[in-house]
Amino acid sequence: xxxxxxxxxxxxxxxxxxxxxxxxxxxxxxxxxxxxxxxxxxxxxxxxxxxxxxxxxxxxxxxxxxxxxxxxxxxxxxxxxxxxxxxxxxxxxxxxxxxxxxxxxxxxxxxxxxxxxxxxxxxxxxxxxxxxxxxxxxxxxxxxxxxxxxxxxxxxxxxxxxxxxxxxxxxxxxxxxxxxxxxxxxxxxxxxxxxxxxxxxxxxxxxxxxxxxxxxxxxxxxxxxxxxxxxxxxxxxxxxxxxxxxxxxxxxxxxxxxxxxxxxxxxxxxxxxxxxxxxxxxxxxxxxxxxxxxxxxxxxxxxxxxxxxxxxxxxxxxxxxxxxxxxxxxxxxxxxxxxxxxxxxxxxxxxxxxxxxxxxxxxxxxxxxxx
Length: 371
Known about the structure:
Elements: H1 6-19, E1 22-26, E2 29-33, H2 38-53, E3 64-67, H3 96-106, E4 112-114, H4 127-136, E5 140-145, H5 153-162, E6 166-170, H6 176-179, H7 188-205, E7 211-218, H8 226-236, E8 240-245, H9 255-258, E9 270-271, E10 274-275, H10 285-288, E11 291-292, E12 297-299, E13 312-313, H11 319-323, H12 326-335, E14 359-364
Parallel strand pairs: 3-4, 3-11, 4-5, 5-6, 6-7, 7-8
Antiparallel strand pairs: 1-2, 8-14, 9-10, 11-12, 12-13
């Protein structure tokens, strides 16, 4: 939703105003908010006006939100700041109290919520409760997992019963040898079991949700394994198989170790060994999709995980105060080129990308409601 173009938003305007329906996609997955109350429709209209007028001080509240259930993870992926132990923030889990404060401030305006950031979200045992609280407010939810925490039928049923709309399951190799090349400490069989259990739980409840996306982060180790992964996705019965370019620590000296040989699968284009430079990206996140970390700290972009430009903290201020506070306005002006951008923007993995999307391939295997 955050990267939606103005023309795309305009095409959705009649259905949103007249029927309270707003269709959008996340990482290629089809999502839709239905029967939105007047306050959400009005907020979306205000957001559209903010976008059209190129405002820094925004009249609308964010229509999308990213919330971090935890920044702890059970894996040690070599291009993730959590995995390599480079996360400068304290580690912890978002409490029910903090999440409830988020909903109290934003539950009447947010259309979609991403429930993950710099950790494995299902390590937070309150995640199904969070999903259910969102569902009760008509908020479309999506999350992403490495698949190791959902290992029983009861755990899978909790996710389905909570009302999760979309689930990305990360699987970067069809065999343990290929998988562990990037997903250090991981077990490929656990990921397969997670996907199978979610599909079983959906069948038991007669529910099409969550829409499941088996996704491979493409590296030099697994690019020849993609046909096997596609076949495995079909076997597991998920809704979609997709591939995505590596997007963490892209300025790390180790990034080149995982870069693909196939130029069509790369995030960046090169001249020799030098990355082709492109004009600064106009990041939409500080305008439409901020992030709230596990302790309630609000940032304009999840890649500010070192809190260089933290805006404030839920509970200490209202979100409305944070949303148009001085640090939020400063970041937006930086994005627009009026003032200097913060240093973390210089490490943005979207900057200089050579393709329109970081998701470089999607194949829908089983549409919603399909056989």
